[in-house]
Design a protein that fits this description.
The complex is a heterodimer of chains A (277) and B (231). In chain A, 43% of the residues lie in helices and 22% in strands. By secondary structure, chain A is of the alpha/beta class. Chain B is globular, with a radius of gyration of 20 Å.
Amino acid sequence: MTRTKQVLAVALMFVAVTGFIAPAGAENQVLKMATTTSTDNTGLLDYLAPRFKQDTGVELQWVSVGTGKALELGRNCDVDVLLVHAPAAEKKFVEEGHGVDRRQVMYNDFVVIGPRTDPAQVRGLAVADAMKKMARDKAIFVSRGDDSGTNKKEIGLWKKAGIEGIDKEAWYVQTGQGMMATINVAAERNGYTLTDRGTYITYENNQKGNPPLVILVEGDPGLFNQYSVIPINPAKCPDTKFDLAKKYSDWMASEPIQQFIGDFKLLDKQLFIPNAK
Amino acid sequence: MNYILEGLVKAFQLLLRGDPETYSAIRVTVQVSTYSMLASLCLGLPLGFLLGYGTFPLKKMVRTLVDTLLSLPTVLIGLIVYAFVSYRGPLGEYGLLFTLPAIAIGQTILALPVVVALAATAVESLDQRLHTTLLTLGANPRQFLLSNLWEARFGLLAAGVAAYGRVLTEVGISMMVGGNIKWHTRTITTAVALETGKGQFGMGIALGLVLMAIALTVNLSLFFLRKRTRH
């Protein structure tokens, strides 16, 4: 009998442990968001979420995936709101009726980064010329390859530069991973990549200000990167928390939070520039 | 080389200072793996007994099927569970995607074949005279089942340990159906994947150490249990 009791005690202990650590307060209001890896990797959401909770009492939970996947999650009604950056795909998403009240909230820009030695000599070029040069020299280029906003942008840039059919080229490396992971692959392979500036500054910060990859092409109007909030359409997804999503969207666009986003800095550099209308 | 050392130092700092992010991942891992182990043991032990002891048509085929399921890849389980619990899926109305129960469902599917197959083997290898003795002593079906399971306890413990090993170390299911949500569904393994992707080795190493420590604790306590229950 004592043996049975011992076994029982162990079992009870397990139950006690799990009971004890079960998440408290299931009655909390929770807003589920799908977002891009850039807003997560830079720490922006860790900075915003506590303030949102404080202001509205709503807990923000997010999954960070590429924009393509984020839109897919929205289409399947698996999240309540999106924070993404691929204007063309977003417009299509809204036109198809999956999202409503798309609102632009902030921007940063894309930059082409590469090794300090710059083997393909693209430093300071316009982006289209830089892309042509990298393709001609077959310089290692590391692509997200994950249908994210950055990936869509990059594919658009190749197209604009008139370069096609590089999908299977040995120098064109597709990681299928997030932005920070992709930058790390580029650093390991001594290659170039396209990134949003926010993630690059975070990377620079992680490398203690002495990164192996540096910004080579920037400031081209073609490198603008707009972020938008899109609540999921309740007509398509009856169970979506539209009121909370709307609250989040209004909150992001509000004067104090726009200011708050502008104040988010790393290495004394601003990562996102608020531009809600 | 330096960053590996730095990572190790950081690991101990995070653990000793009680870094909330690190401990959140540990808590989530312990919690969800406990759910899935309880579920897979409750379902798996009786099924394993039936498979090991019972005689029914197609038994050999069922056995082969269970053995095949031992090598079910976690990403395939992740994919299937995802398809089922997504809002558009058959279980969509429960809103399970990106929650701990979704991970637990996936991990239960992962652990179940291990428990069933190993429990069946343990029951099969029992002394055949046990059955006759129990029956002649007038055991009712419940007593019969429990006595058999008790006699096979070492084999069943091994089954549990093997299943726990798979559940604890899987990353595919947690990543796909859990979504790696900070403070909620970020487990040790998904956090390690994420931190390595971000080039932050410290937290990755810290969590790796914890994972090993959990495995060691479980095995030590089972070792203890085994010693105490030996005749």
